[in-house]
């Protein structure tokens, strides 16, 4: 009987895509999958290091799985994949008792590593590569509805923003060969996907130079995908403001299946803070890019990431961030407080000097403001009609579906005759801060 693997995924969407790569690699060597950790011979956790609390959550889960293993008296292998494998390294074997540690560029080695563990050794591979893009792997979509899926188009990051662990855990930036991306998207189209989200740590920095010297940049890639899968919606995340070129904005405005939504992390509204963060742009640059985007695509949804309490952040800096949020009127935002990450530039050069209580208060102020902005943005949609991709049954009511508008807002509506996976026009009748409610 074949061995059963259970994989859990923490962190960003890139990890969701990587889990599919891991599943494909393990399937080719004969492993099966199970959703139940109790049944599994191999327990894998794909992990995140972006903030300390993300790592704490994973450590808690490892401890649970150890307890499960003791209780079952079963000899399941426990393996840690992804960013924490890369950052915490051998200590996962020695302090946390796991059997296998594989960094983001080591997944092709997993079959060998698992055999090593089966023959009684511990296995670790945290070598980062300058080339690995898993170009020959067609990621295996795990059970669930196959309507909207992720495709990773580049790996790693060379930006070295001063607060960020990603360049250390995911290594150098590299773009995946266009043909390999097209193959994956064609496959998704064949099995019925209606939407693809292109993924990269700095997705609009995509740049591939072929052996013949031909170059494909991010807008070129979008146009090619639009041609290959003309009925699929195209999204991408996360772009960097410095690479928000006029060409990209023009491409988004020209091609109807590229969704009118952008998740554009700003991080802070203060120029002094942006400079210490080494973000490479100013508040004015960001505002200009959003203005250009809105001029080309007036209804474009805009969301962002912001974190407060970075080293040296003053009350005035924080007020600048609140003012920027008001000025842009983000439709939604992911909001965090600074968490120092070992070995980053900030950890080595700036004291983490904003007291925890101040970080918390500022975070609450960001959240309160964004709640107000999100509600206002959603209320402004009442009475409008949107094309919605039906993604599934609403969690709150079996008689309702949920889906998303092109602007990336979640809409809940009575099922009527619609099917999951179809596009319907929904008229918005009311709104909360998080959701639009409407009728087909
Ligand atoms: N502390 C807090 N938030 C962080 N982010 C990245 N690094 C840190 C950190 N050290 C946030 C940024 C990024 C999002 C994915 O996580 O806002 O865009
Ligand atoms: Fe977390 Fe960043 Fe790694 Fe994604 S790339 S899992 S957000 S640390």
From TrEMBL:
Tell me the superkingdom of the source.
Answer: Bacteria
Task: State the SUPFAM superfamilies in the record.
Answer: Radical SAM enzymes (SSF102114)
**Looking at the keywords, is Iron-sulfur present?**
yes
Under the heading InterPro entries, the entry gives: Elp3/MiaA/NifB-like_rSAM, Methylthiotransferase, Methylthiotransferase_CS, Methylthiotransferase_N, Methylthiotransferase_N_sf, MiaB_methiolase, NA-bd_OB-fold, rSAM
Catalysed reaction per UniProt?
A: N(6)-dimethylallyladenosine(37) in tRNA + (sulfur carrier)-SH + AH2 + 2 S-adenosyl-L-methionine = 2-methylsulfanyl-N(6)-dimethylallyladenosine(37) in tRNA + (sulfur carrier)-H + 5'-deoxyadenosine + L-methionine + A + S-adenosyl-L-homocysteine + 2 H(+)
Q: What sort of enzyme, by top EC class, is this?
A: transferase
Instruction: Note how many cofactor molecules are bound and how.
Output: Binds 2 [4Fe-4S] clusters. One cluster is coordinated with 3 cysteines and an exchangeable S-adenosyl-L-methionine.
Report domain Radical SAM core positions. 143-376
Keyword tRNA processing set for record:
yes
Q: Which family does it belong to?
A: Belongs to the methylthiotransferase family. MiaB subfamily.
Quaternary structure, from the entry: Monomer.
Function of the protein: Catalyzes the methylthiolation of N6-(dimethylallyl)adenosine (i(6)A), leading to the formation of 2-methylthio-N6-(dimethylallyl)adenosine (ms(2)i(6)A) at position 37 in tRNAs that read codons beginning with uridine.
Can you name this protein? Answer: tRNA-2-methylthio-N(6)-dimethylallyladenosine synthase
Instruction: Quote the gene name from the UniProt entry.
Output: miaB
